From TrEMBL:
Annotated PANTHER family: NACHT, LRR AND PYD DOMAINS-CONTAINING PROTEIN 12, NACHT, LRR AND PYD DOMAINS-CONTAINING PROTEIN 3
Protein name: NACHT domain-containing protein
Domain spans labelled NACHT: 77-211
Keyword Nucleotide-binding: no
Pfam families for the chain: NACHT
Sorted UniProt keywords: Cytoplasm, Repeat
Intracellular or extracellular location(s): Cytoplasm
Amino acid sequence: MKEHNSRLEKEGDLQFQGVSAKTEIPPVHPAISEIIFYAKDKAPADEEYDPDDNKELYSNKIITQVQFQDLLKLKSKFISIIGRAGSGKTVLSKKLTKAFSSSHRVCIHIKFMDMNNKQPLTLRELFLDNMIPGQDEKVYENIFNWLKKNDEKLILVLDGFDQAEYTLDKNCPKIKYDKCVPEKQLIHNLFIKQLFPNSLLVVTSRPHAVLYLPEPARPQVTYALGDLSLEDTKKLFLAFADEDLWRKINATSSQMLSMCRNPLMLQMIISTNTDPSEDIGDASTPTRLFATVMKNLTYSHNFQFSETMDELARKLQVLAFAATKHGKVVLTAKELRDEGVDPTTIHDIMVQLHCHRRPINSRLFEGNTKFYFCHQTFQEHLTASYVVYGMPVEKFQEFLETSLFQEHWTVVRRFVCGLLFDLESKAVSGDLQIKKKILKKHLIQQLAIISEKLMKQHEKRMKDSQLFAFQDDEALTDKLLDLYACVGEGKDSSIATKAAEHFPTTIKLQQPMNSNLVPGLCFVMKHVTKQLDWLSMFSCLLDANSFHEIASVIKEMKPGQIGEMEIYYNNLQPSNIDDVIGLLRVVRDELWMGDCFIGDDGKRRAANQDERSKIQSALNKLQTRLVVHVDFDTRLRSQKRIGMNETNSKKC
């Protein structure tokens, strides 16, 4: 066991390309949820294209949230841990191995990519030859006999079942320990607990591989991995980069921090910002980030392409667009070869998997070996690149009118805007300039249409005295914020100015607010000069960073430019009190706070006495009629209050 664990230690938990750890890797864990996994003939979620990559896996199937320590107390005999590419399955499996080993149990950790044996073998050969190679035959025999007699102390952690090159059959014969059979029969007998029946079996995988296991071979419990918390993200980030880079990203492109919650994306962002390509500049938007990553792959030590990156990228763009258009993320080797791409040379960009059996009425894929982009956002960026650089102008015009502004193309649309609007300052001629004008026209039209619909719905509510009926607004607000994200991705001030002209005078932001949408909202709000009647951030669950970003823009507005504002039910930290104070000169009538801070106990609280004193002191320096509702019973006013005839509050 010492030799086995020593080998795991040497492999390392995280192997970042282009960056190495500066300090010891801290104990960080992604969010872990016990979920209801098996549903009748449901298509695998990670084989279908989902335009919102920030949604939680199976969020509507969560039974309960669990902690890492809870996994060490499991009573089930067979569990699976699933998650998207780069979510931390392998890291978690190694941490489980180390934790179980320290509890005086025998824990064997093996990757499926290290197995896939072509010749028949015994269970002893599968495990012990893999676990501790080069031992005497007598040693193997003694160890294996002990494991059979003491299997209640045995934990088998099998990592990456999606990389197995076989499918488990429904009618697989039961076997004995010394039987020499194909590897898939050994695995099947482990799954049905025919072998080592009292052991704990932990299998990690992308979801598609375990979704169609035959019923007797299914895990008893399934856990889904989500993202790292912001706190754990920062810990992991600082293990590989310095705090200056964290502060820089936080200040210039905070949406990158939410992308860093996926360990794979954290790797890319650190590598890109540490040694960016000279002709890309700062990677302050997702569009710039992925353009830089694609450039940096040229310098990868794994670079094995027989052509230039530009030539390969053009082929991948065609493949990505076709996959996105047809709603899939999995490609066959034939599809790659038909486009002139050698599947054996693109492992930096695409990941290989092996097809598992599916029900007859499920979508089928040809062949055994499949490929998917190492992160869905790569597919989306390459798809957008095809739209911008590969699609003829006539087709581009048609695509904008019929498809681009549909929900299916949400993320692709942002990248298209980023690529076209964020072109270098030098003059751009030809088709790109034509496409830029066409896109600008359509985007501004969409902004005007959505904003007008929002304002008409608000006027109707006021007329019908339905002050709190915001359900009809939610879909429109989501569309508007997505369009603002497009504007922010392009960093074109002329478009932001036009967007600001159509900014609704009354708006209630998302509940909760997606942090990736905050930069776009702020970029547009910087250009808003009109008077706003009401801005609600009620129950947006904004964290300290997102609120600071929004407040920093608002405090630069004209005095009294916003009539009324709501910020209660958010996740602010004590440091945000300065942001709240910055709002006081801009809000004219009422500022509703309520339970907007997070206390030391993790529960929401109203402003405490010290924070109230700071607000009151700041108010006393202003000549304003503003009323600050710090909770439902306490109101603060300026000692230099003007306009003493108070209007009746419209809110409670």
